[in-house]
Amino acid sequence: MANADHRQTAHIISHTHWDREWYLPYEKHHVRLIALMDTLLDTLENDEEYRSFYLDGQTIIIEDYLQVRPDQRERLEKWIREGRIHIGPWYVLQDAFLTSSEANVRNLQIGHQDAAHYGTIAKVGYFPDTFGNIGQAPQLMKQAGIDNAVFGRGVKPTGFNNMVSDSAYESSFSELVWEGPDGSQVLGILFANWYSNGNEVPVDEAEAKEYWDRKLADAGKYASTGQLLFMNGCDHQPIQTDLAEAIRVARKLYPDTDFVHSNFPDYLASLKSSLEDKQLSVVRGELRSQRTDGWSTLVNTASARVYLKQMNQTGQMILEKVAEPLAAFAHVTGQAKYPHHLLKYAWKTLMQNHPHDSICGCSVDEVHREMVTRFDKSRHVAETIVDDSKQAVAGAVDTSVFASYGQDALPLVAFNTTGWTRSGVLEVELDVARVYFREGIAPNDMIRMMKEISLEGRTLVDADGNAIQHTFEDLGLQFGYDLPDDKFRQPYWTRRVKLTFEAAAVPALGLKTYAWVLGAASGASSPSLVSGPRTLANDSLSIEIAEDGTLAVTDMASGRTYRDLLIYENVGDIGNEYMFKQPDGETALTTKGLAAEIRVIEDNAYRAAFEIVHHWSIPASADELFEQEKQEAVYYPERKSGRSTTFVPFTIRTVVSLERSGRGVGIRTTFNNQAKDHRVRALFPTDLIASVHRADAIFEVAVRDNEPAAEWENPSNAQHQQAFADVSDGMQGLTIANFGLNEYEVLRDGRNTIAVTLLRSVSELGDWGVFPTPEAQCLGEHTVDLLILPHGGDGAVSGAYASAYQFQAPWTSAQTGVHGGTLSPVHSFLAWEGEGIAFSSAKIAEATGDLMLRWFNMRPEAAKLQALPNVSGSSAAYASDVLEQEGERLKPSDESASGSFAAELGPCEIYTVGIAAAK
């Protein structure tokens, strides 16, 4: 036992780990929550010795309870304000790896805002059951004023008096120092005996003696001091109403131990006081169970129900990379008020899908059906904010110049809401003319008028009058309507077209204006990007498609060719929603050598594309033994099932595209899955010599070993990713960007192949029981998107990572009229530069109305940021943090440029700046 010569204290902290939805649908868990909370309030009222309760670190529990029990608000608030119920700091207990960087911050911000309404916020970095822990958690916690992290996974404790830990992912004790890649350090508390090690404390003396003999020894084995932590609760655990009596019994049995009904503030204060002379292990960076056998990491939740991850990525990106910046632009130009209330509602609705058992896809089918509806609801709100904001900003753009370039100009504004200058292909719908029902024209005449409109003789021009090569598609007669703020709905008929063109060099966080005009001169045509029967080329890349559909991609700058890219792989999966398990001895099926149908499907000035079709067949399912093993809950690594000898068609349609200014090869893959119990991946051999690789994580380009630790036994070494995975030898590199495909692996195949999981079909939840989940087989149509990005040795400096981040964000456009305005036709709201720095977000702070801008340093070395906001009426810039608190004023980077500022970003630093609004 640790510190046997000193008196010890047993801190018993009551809690319930509340998985909002998991092995029961949300509402069934919800009903149980109401009962639990009713009991908690009664217990606090009737038992003064029941001192406090920790509400699982997530404020959404309060919302869920008061939704059904609004009559209990006053009682609940009383116990929170008196410090007997501790709330915050999160809105939900999210899976941090599968939610975006900004989603993690919004979760922290909204959790703090909601808790502040009740007058108190628990400053506990609470990660009890996160499926691995992100490397930047210490920095996020420190910026939020939290000096600790309490977590359950990712570090292996070696035990007191055992060999001193010699690994970055081992700790001698359950107490440790956790250090982020920027150097931020927090006191780490590992639930070495899980967050239920003080659950259901017995009242009977004999049972209590047996219980505490075991529990005190278990905690003492790993504790560095005599301050022992016992978590009195577990998943959906009801309140222990006789805990006070159980503690009295424990005190009687163990007079040398102080048993207290504690809370995190008291426990942490006592622990810190006792640690003054202790040397703790320092663990650094991501905690992903690196020093384990690899079988229980839960990493394959990153590929369970891929459709959820894709919907989540769409929802996150439209909020943080489109709606927030566009609404901020509209706000700072004085065109519209920033819709804090709508954005918070959209974020909350989206984050209700972010708990670890929800976004991980590891719940029963009913849970995930409801998630789809929440994704839609959040997206619909975000799309409405985008529509209103883009029209407001477009209305402030001076488009009068287009009247001089031809007749009947139809201006449109292309918005680049990413942090870097951007070129790319847009598809924009324009109304050539409208006739409103209110005009009193006979319905047949209205329709005739629209159909008779000529579309000939029009050219797309930019603000300098240059003709832009484009194509247009006549969408014909369309019905539409306006919803004015001051009138009844206004229906109309319109003649609509779709223009497709390349918008070149649209400024970062800015816009560029075009117009489709009648009578302007056409420009010269560009040469085709189709350079041969199965080849594409632009100034940056050359692509050759082999007969089996694999790609040879040449980086024109270096001359390096990457071969055999885009092999599809299929293997069986007899695991579950949590973990992948390939049948023993199975040989993977691949499309290497499988002849494909290849044809050109697009050949325009701005983009060209080939279609590749593989007519493949794969086993229909696992074999008959699998059903027996599932029913008997055989531990998945020990299963002996194989694959069926019956095959089903699996046709893969791939579109390989190249844009004229593109630096990457676009891949869109579509297939109709009718097979069960299997996994599909896309393989990209890099043939680069490297022992490590890089992957986009949370505010970090994480560096990870290609080879796992010696303890690793799992044949698979899958990892989490956000926007991309990258292998580089220091001279050249290959980045594979994705959209909503959160699992990859760098194979130990001698080629450092990047394998991206496209689909995983499984049939059970797994974990602690037998829970069939037939919808997790993901039958039906699927479409996935990837981008191949060859680059110079450093993807952060070469621009490959910036391109991967831009791949996440959609283009936005708005049709407007010919009018004057305060914004020029080509406008940027923020100019900035900084080598190796990534832009993350632009929004308006609710408390101050200030413009908040965030970057992060992608590299472990200092970098200089220089920026010039183009925001009228703003005052000085100041350093801030993830909670948007005002810090020190920043010095101008250029005394002659009003509003400019410069800052030195430390290694891997997350850096937030506030631009003070005019008061």
TrEMBL record:
SMART domains: Alpha-mann_mid (SM00872). Transmembrane segments: none annotated. It holds the Pfam family Glyco_hydro_38. Residues 301-375 form the Glycoside hydrolase family 38 central domain. Belongs to the glycosyl hydrolase 38 family. PANTHER family: ALPHA-MANNOSIDASE 2C1 (PTHR46017), MANNOSYLGLYCERATE HYDROLASE (PTHR46017:SF2). It comes from the Bacteria. This is Glycosyl hydrolase. GO terms for molecular function: hydrolase activity. The keyword Metal-binding applies. Gene3D superfamilies: 2.60.40.2210, Glycoside hydrolase 38, N terminal domain, Glycoside hydrolase family 38, central domain, Golgi alpha-mannosidase II, domain 4. CDD domains: GH38N_AMII_SpGH38_like. Keywords: Glycosidase, Hydrolase, Metal-binding. It comes from Paenibacillus glycanilyticus.
